[in-house]
Each structure stands twice: as structure tokens, then as C-alpha cells.
Amino acid sequence: MLSVLKKFNLKQDLYSFLTLISVLSILMPLFQFKFFYTIKPYMAVIPVCFFVGWFFRERFQVNKSSVRQCVFEKMLIVFIVYSGVSFFWSDYPDASIKMFLAMCVLSFIYFFLRNIVVNLSLDGLVKVLIISGLVINLVSLLLYIFSFLSLDGNFNSMPKGTYMGLLVDRGVPRLTGLLNDPNLFVVMNLIFVFVSFSFRQFKMSKMLMVVSLCSVFLTFSRGGWVAIFIGLVCVFVFSMFKDSKPINFIKLALVVLTFVLMMVVFYQFIPEQYKVYFVERFAHIGSASGRFKLWNNAVSLLPQSGLFGFGIFSAKHVNCDMFMSCKYFHNTYLALLLEVGVLGFALYYLPHVYLLIKTIKVMLFNLNENVVRFSSFLFGVHVSILAMMMSLTIYANEILIILFSLHVLLHSVYQREAFGEVKR
């Protein structure tokens, strides 16, 4: 039995499958229920995948890959501990302890996921992400089309509501996939947009690029479009420093021009009804869907939050009590400043800055082309997620455990390079 298994790359095949299942369980929450918390499939699936990998590794004596705890992980632990301590001065201790426990659960899930992902090669992980992206985006588009046709395309008189893969918002049918928020769908889809862009040499990546961009467009998420654009521009700007030939500046100009032309051409060929939706979304850009009012409320509270803040996960409750608006502030930066103060804000974003700097160094100085591609993909995703934080409160979102796991894999490549064991 062992000799048969050795004919195949058991480690790569096994961990590719486990990673695929893990990623799909995070991004396709088919079943979930509330029991104090929202219980989601990945909370059970990822630990099971970890122990399956551990069982086969021990049973068939497969060499394991491991990586020591990274610096950014220690920084995040400090933030989580600080958030838990904020319970003692929180104005809303019940909410604070709830979020602290949720972050602890996410941390454990992250531990399992990163120890699955680190066993893959870069190419192996990219292929898993491409397959995951195709499955998620094709299912999302099919659900959207089904709901669109079922509702006969008459949305102007319909109240706001979610229908299997589609959200009707002020007469605009917005794609949500298997989530309930089109903006969160864009956040989840950023990984697939950038992996298809950075690894165009794979056959299925071109198809993924088309379906993922179509999905993002159908969300009618203005913040999502802007975030992708910012991410792409940042990737090209830093890639120009690696090779400052004039052709790179031309490439950057072509990217900007292509993006604008693509939007213009797409607008010309879409059905007339979608032009109405498109205009409708941008007609209200000045109000940012009510976000400017929420942000003004948050800014007015900043002097009161001080160095330590009101306590983790208290922003919504503060907004409700002070302004009779029981909504999140839809801005991660403002939410953190209010909840954990300047100190907590610095503790949270310090690991993000650290990771971006490390990734930029790889982009600029690493000689392995595949590693550079992966780092540019990761840099673009990370920058875009930070841009999306301007319009969403997502400091403890599931997408971050995938993002950090990808960073750990890149870090493990440093170790393999140091010992002469670099794998594509």
C-alpha cells in the first residue's frame, strides 16, 4: 500500500484537496445557524481537515512542512489579548466579551488552516485557489441568473430584500453569491481576481478572470471596484521599481487605460436595464449609501474614545445610544479607533504594515520568478482588502485567516530557500 501511495505525490494531492475543502467551506457558507454566535461550516470542516492531514502524515510517514510562529502572528496575539482586556473598561462588556471569544475561535481556526496550507507548494496553492474561484463564481452567477429570471426583472417596486444569490437594493439587483452582502462577496472575491491576474499562465486562470470580474461588476459595489483598481495600480507601481525600464511605465498607463475602456465598452453592450442600474448606483455616490453620515457620527465621538477606546465591539452600541442609529459605522479604521482607541488601532495595523513591507521586499529583491508572482498577487489582495476597510467593518472577518495563511506560506518559502529546498 505504501509503495503505491509513494508513486503519487501524496502530500501535495492530499493537502491540495484539504485546502480546497477548507477554502470552499469559508467562502460558501451553505448552512449556518445562530446559537449565541453564528455557527458556520468552516468551524467544523477546517479542524477535521487538519486532523485528516495529520493522520495520513503519521500513517504513511509523509514528510511534513512546518514553520515557526511568525512575527506578525505574535503581534496579532498581542492585539487579541488587548481586546480581551478592554472588557474591563468597556461600556458594553457583554458585546466585548462576545467579540473577544469570537476572535479566539477565529485564531484556533486560523491555526488549523495555516498548518494545512503550509504543506503546499506555491503552484499547488494557486491551482487550488483557481479551482475554488471558478466553483464559487460560477455557482454565484447561476444563482443570480436564476433569481433574476424568477423575479421577472421588475425590481423598481420591490422592497429591499435578499433572494437566493441576489439582493434588491433601491431597485438595483446586486449579486451576493452565497453571502448576504454584495460588499462582503467582493472582499471574498478579491483573492480570485488577483490570482487570475498574477498567474495568467495557467489555462483556467483566464476563465477565472472573466467570471470573477463579471461577478464583481454585478455586485454594483462602488467600493469593490475602487479597491481592485487601487490594488492593481499599487502592484504595477512597485513592480516598476524592480525594473525601471520605460516599458513598465507604459504597462501602468495601459492598465489604467484598459480599466477605463473596459468599463466604457461594458456599459455600451450591457442591456438597457443594467444601464439604468449603473446610473442609479452612481447617482447616489455623494451619500455613499448613508455612510458619510455614519462616518461623521464616528468622527464626532473620537475625542471621547481616547487612548483605550470604548471597548472592543462597542461601536454599534455607541452609535445606537448616542445617535439612535443602530448600525455599524461601515469603516474599520473608525470602528477600531472608537472601540480600542489609538493604542489598539496601532496594535491591529502594525502586523498589516509589517506584512506589506515584507511582501514588497520579496517583490523587489527575490530572484525566483514564481515567488515574485505570488508576492505581487498577495500584495494586491492585501492592499485591496485594506481599501475595502474604508467602507466595511471587517477587522475580524474570515477572509483574513485565508490572507494570513497565504502570508505564512510565503514565509515558509524563505525557510526553504535558506535550506536550498525551494519548490515551485
From TrEMBL:
The chain crosses the membrane at residues 14-33, 39-56, 71-89, 95-113, 125-149, 184-202, 223-241, 247-270, 294-313, 333-350, 371-389. It is found in: Membrane. One of its GO terms (cellular component) is membrane. InterPro entries: O-antigen_ligase-rel_domated, WaaL-like. Its main location: membrane. The keyword Membrane applies. Keywords: Membrane, Transmembrane, Transmembrane helix. It is a multi-pass membrane protein. Residues 208-348 form the O-antigen ligase-related domain. PANTHER family: LIPOPOLYSACCHARIDE BIOSYNTHESIS PROTEIN PA4999-RELATED, TEICHURONIC ACID BIOSYNTHESIS PROTEIN TUAE. This is O-antigen ligase-related domain-containing protein.
